[in-house]
Input
Amino acid sequence: MTFVTDTRDNVPGLLGARRIITLLGSILVAVCSGTNYIFSAYAPQLGARLHISHTQLNVVGLAGNAGVYVSGPIWGRIVDSRGPRIPLTGAFLCFLVGYSGIKRMYDAGADSGTSISPAHFGLLAVCGLLTGLGANAGIGSAISTTAKSFPESAHATTTGLVLSGFGLSAFLFSTIAHVFFPGDTSAFLLLLALATSMPILLALFIVRPVPLPPTRSGPRDDEHGDYEQIPSGEVVPFIADPNIHTVGVAEEDSRAPLLGSQPQDGSSTLRPGRSHSRSRPDNLPDIHGKMLWRNVDFYVVFVIMALLNGTGIMYINNVGSISLALFAKSNPNYDEVEASKWQAAQVSTLSVGNFVGRILSGLVSDFIRNHLHLPRAYSLCIVSSLFIISQASAMGISSVSTLWIATATLGVAYGSLYGALPSIIIDWFGLAHLSENWGYVTLAPLVGGNIFSIMFGRNLDAHTPREEDTSHDVTRVIIGGASLSEHQCLIGRECYVSSLRVTLVACMVALALSTWAATREERRQKAVGKGRTDERDRDL
Output
């Protein structure tokens, strides 16, 4: 048994410069990691240049999303065991190679009247995959480092700040491109290649976990002295029990009791009905690995994530096509420059909403927990409701000038989902393996995202006019050397409204599951409170 004695001079304060620099560095990494949300800003131009369909474009977008979600458990395990440096190095390489490859293929284009070869399309998808791998490596490192550098009471707020940078990324990059490279998709892709990779090099030196000081000094309590090291690659002690002065780093087989006393049979009273792989001194469970996959709560949050995130991915990857369809419907004299402005406006609106949602959801989640004394899971009910509003409003909008209402609502809902979930994952499964557990949860969008996005792409393709189709009165527009109307549905809401009906129902199911999960968690908390009261009464 080894002890790390508390010396306040060696542990930075909760608002010390080292801790704030780590937070700012994590936000910088998050900003670089959120560029998958900007895909729809250049997707129509990429499709027209390479002569590929909406379904193929959605496959490229989904490749980026798959890189984010499939790599989650892998990067998470590395972050938890080795710290953030290896994933950050991987993020640098993936961003640089991925966006440079997409730019190279865009510049090369395709032969007139023909689509790119299957081999080139596969390479394009691989480049998209690399951008997703880099995104997860970056954001996973930033979230884990932030969570391990701030106390539990601030987890939702601080991780929400980091995730807000992830959500604001698309707005920042699209604004820079619009100001300095208007209408130049090739220069925009070069910007993405360099501006996402180079700042990661700086983050390698400033993003690392900062030890937490004990909350109160006092004599050491030997009964609770066995504290387990956070597996982050560095020694990062948790906030100790208020009566504990010394933070201990336990041997491998040493385990501290979860509560002041526990039943002799080893069962935990912290969360009735929830299994624990081991207990921790910070009153959090420690569920990971096989125990996670046997836990009912994991599947509840997995399904909610699949339904809501899948809806968000579908809209985010296709909002550019939606805006072009609405603009063409109400403007027979199609103006490419004006249409691209509406397209960029939707991406910026979505990004700002994403940013706002990630900040507000963290604050709301902490307020629900710390002031209303209710489970953070209730925040998922709010998030699900926002998704329902976004899909219902998008179904009713027939003018591009009012599309921002649905886009902003979807952005806030999507950002809120990612701002609220990490703290819920901590409450339900513990902090020690946050990155790994979060990685498994983020596998869920692979299901919802693939189903909804492919459905949306096929729906668009079914309504896209073909060479021999003269039933649609659409003015042909030349973008990137290709006729846009050959690859773009331009007949307004008819292009996509049936897809929105499906996602509306999916969001309603997510709301029902969120309500059930929150009320179930509230009953658990009441049972725990009653058990502690009965225990105190017995002691008296």
Observations:
- The mean pLDDT is 77.
- Strands lie at 2-4, 247-249, 278-279, 285-286, 478-479, 482-483.
